[in-house]
Amino acid sequence: MELLSCFSKKNHKVLKTGIYIALIAGGFGALLSALMGYLISQQGGYDDKTLFWHQWLGIALALLSFLGWGIKSNRLSFRFLKSRAIIVLLVVLMFITGHLGGNLTHGSDYLTAYAPNFVKKILGYEASYPLIIPKSLDSVRVFDHLIQPILNAKCVQCHGENKVNGGLKLSSIESISKGGEGGAVIVKGQPYESELLLRCTLPQEHKKFMPPKGTPLSFSEMKLLEWWILQGASTDMKLTTTIVPTEIHQFLMRDFGVDTKTKPFYDRIQVPPIEEDLLLEFSNVGWKATRLSVNHQLLNVKLFSDSLSIKHLEVLQKAKDHVFCLDLSGIRTLTDDMVKVVVQLPHITHLKVEKTGIKDSGVKLLVGLQHLEVLNLYGTSVTNESLMAISDIPSLKRVYLWNTKVTPESIVNFHELNPKIEVIGIEYDHQIKD
């Protein structure tokens, strides 16, 4: 209005009256705002420096409004002060005070938080990108990729770097562990004794319900928080190093697209494409080598011979990373030295040595196959000694022991010690039924 009054002689008086009213009303409004702001500041949790300047600049804004009204209405007169200079100063003060108020309530980045990345870069701020959860389960850290984003979205506005209600910061694991004015907010292993979770589960009308404003935590977010605390609230916790309950698995799959079900070994390993010439070489020496499927480079390998020679082993070693299933059934001349070559095939999960000459000493060598899941020893001369040896194969799921020298009693004892390993054997089944 002051600017318009300079160029409009016709409406000068009307505009001048409007300026009087705006200045006096603005002065009282600023005083009322300063009073309300002072009362709110007594709750604590605000950055002291920002609060100091916001408070005193707000008071100065109110006083300057009254001073401007006095000069503009000729009730006050100062040689060195002009009403227009006061109004310009009021506008500047209003912008600065309002900006500081925004910093207090919304954080120092409230003007740039949702700005395009190119604008942030121009202004010197770090560009932000949406959280991307790693595709590899081994890389997913529960706190960094699941818990902290929940806290950032629902809690950090009041418990962050710029506003610290109750002395509690939730912007990092260090500040969370430190707690607030009321003490620790997490009791590791005990979610429902942890204030961080309890406040989120209160009825929304409760005065201590968190967050008091905005969107509350969803049921799945609360369950994730509960699960994390129950598991020890560790920053090192990974999805692959802890048991994921079915309910949590469903939440992760639905909300984050994260599948925590363990994939088969053949889906987890990557090997280079196998050359067609090598497949032909397998065939030429008596092996039958076939891919698991069109999309897999792993091989099912079976020997169509009753003896294993050096040339067979040489070809096998050339494709050692590609052999997934190996069938040596019927080779009565299978020696420990030959088994040592087999153990050099790192990706074998299925090994058939039924009706072969393998001995207890050879079975002990198989402990080196860290991914072996199925072992067929049917029709061999192995004894109880072999049974004890295979218990050290961490990945073993099933073993066939028909027509061996392993006793039913030792099989029962083995099953009690290794319940996750399925033992297939007629005598063993009969013993269990008894």
UniProtKB/TrEMBL annotation:
Cytochrome C Planctomycete-type domain sequence ranges: 155-214
Record InterPro entries: Cyt_c_Planctomycete-type, LRR_dom_sf
SUPFAM superfamilies: RNI-like
Keywords: Membrane, Transmembrane, Transmembrane helix
Transport among keywords: no
Transmembrane segments annotated in the record for this chain: 20-40, 52-71, 83-102
Name of this chain's protein: Cytochrome C Planctomycete-type domain-containing protein
